[in-house]
Batch of 2 targets.
Target 1
Amino acid sequence: MMKNQQSGFTLIELIMVIVIIGILAAFAVPRFADLSGDARMASLDGARGALLSANGIVHSTALARNQAVGAGNVNVEGGVSVATVEGYMAGTAAAVGAAAQFEGDFVVTDAAGVATVTLGACSFTYTEPTGPGVVGVVAAITGQNADGGCDP
C-alpha cells in the first residue's frame, strides 16, 4: 500500500504568516511613509531658490532700466510691478510675493525691510539692501526638526 502524504502549508500556518507580516507593516510603514516634513522642507527650499532667481531678475531689470539707485519700481514677467531698493527687491511681503509668485502657498510677512517666508514651522528671510552697493540677502532656512524636515 502506498502512503498518502500531503505537502504544503496548512491554513493556520498561512494565516499566522499573514498576521506577522501585518504586524511588521503596522510598525514599519509609518516610519517610512511620513514624508510630509521632508516635502515641506523641499517646497521651502524651492521657494528660496525662486526668490533668489526673482531677486536676480529684478536687479537685472533695474540695471537695464537705470533704476539701480534709491527706491523705485520695476515691471517683471506679465507686467507685475515690484518695489525696489537700490535695484534689488524691497523687503516687503508684497514685493517678495509678487516677484517670486508666492500665490497663497506660503505665508509672507514683513517688518523693517525684512520679509519672512514661512511654511509650517520652517522659514527663511529676505533682507533688502541698507544702502548703495549692498545686496539683498536671502538667509538659510531655519526651524527644521531633528530629521531635517519641517513640522506642520
Target 2
Amino acid sequence: MTQAINSIVRIAVVLLLMTVSLGASAQVERGQKSFGPRVGYITRNNSALVGLNFDYAFSSHVRIAPTIGLVFRNEDRDALLIDIDVHFPIATSAKAAFYPIAGAAFNSWALHNVSDDSHDDVISRKNGFGLNAGAGWEIRLSKALRLGIEAKYTLLRHNPSGNFAARIAYVF
C-alpha cells in the first residue's frame, strides 16, 4: 500500500511541476467532454484497478463523471465498479484545478473459494449500491489533454473501500 501511495505522490509532484510551464487553461467550459483510461489502487483487497472515465461539464462549476473499473484479483477477491460521480472544479491556477467528488456507486465483488478436493473455483458475489466522496486534482497539458489524480472513499454496507487513481483524458 505504501508503494502505491508513494507512486501517487510522485505523480502529483510531477503534475505540479508541469503546471508551471504549460499554456493550457484549467477553466472548464460548458459542454466540454473528456474520455480516457485510469489506473490505481483499491484498499478493499490491496490490489490494482483499471478503468475508463468520461465526463461532461454542465457548467464551469459542475460536471458529471461516470466511470467503470475492474479490480484485479487479490486475497481471493476481484470486482466490477461502476460509479456516477459529480465533480465541482475549482481552478487553483491558470492550468490546474481541484475538484471535490460526490456520487453513487455500484460494486460487484466476487469472492473466490477454491475447493481443496476438486480445485474448483467457486465464486460468490456481493452486489451493492453505495456513496462516493473524495477529491481530485488535474492539470491541462494542452487544449486536448488533461492529467489528474483522485482519491475517494466508497461507502458500501459489506465492501467499503478507498481508491486512489491517476487518469489521463482526451478533451473534446
